[in-house]
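To: structure desk
From: M.T.
Subject: fold request, one chain
Message: Could you run this one when you get a chance? Sequence is below, nothing fancy, just the single chain.
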Amino acid sequence: MRTRIVSSWNHTRAAAGVTLLIVLSCGLCGLVAYQWYRDADLRMQIADRNRQLQQLNEQKHEVETTGKRVEEELKRVEQLKERLTEQDKTNKVELSRAKRDLSEMTVKWERATKQGDAYKAAYDKMSTNVLVQNESMRKLNEAYLNAVNVNKDTVEKYKKLAGDCEELNQRYNKLFDQAEKLQQALNAQSADKGDKK
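Reply: Done. Structure tokens follow.
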């Protein structure tokens, strides 16, 4: 009778051991499956983050390229503005000279009218000269007005270009901030992985 108790007891212990081994095996299988699922998900997240980072780098490169083009355009517009300013000064000098010439011609014309018929031939000649000078002055006035209008248009374009440049700088700063946040998130995630290992 005693042998049966011992053998029954051993049998129960053996069955409990087998059950425990089966439970542990199932638990390990579940743990391995969970670990595999988590690793696959993390790999997908890393690949997604890498794609996002690459896109942000491409956008940053595009913004930098656009910024360089805008800077070059601003330099060109500044040079054009300086050239137009110099041309405007030259036009003003020419206009002043033409007015002075016109004033002198008017004085001469008045003297010639006082001399009467004896100087009629000289008067006719001078009258023709005055008409030529008036035409020249009219052309200079038109050229001056055209230069002023061109200068106004250039200033407006410069203002618009400056606004566009400011907008591009703001977009670049936003993209850069997003890239830094993404990098910080990746670093934090990498640190979390290191801690979990």
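Reply (cont.): Helices lie at 2-115, 120-196. Let me know if you need anything else for the meeting.
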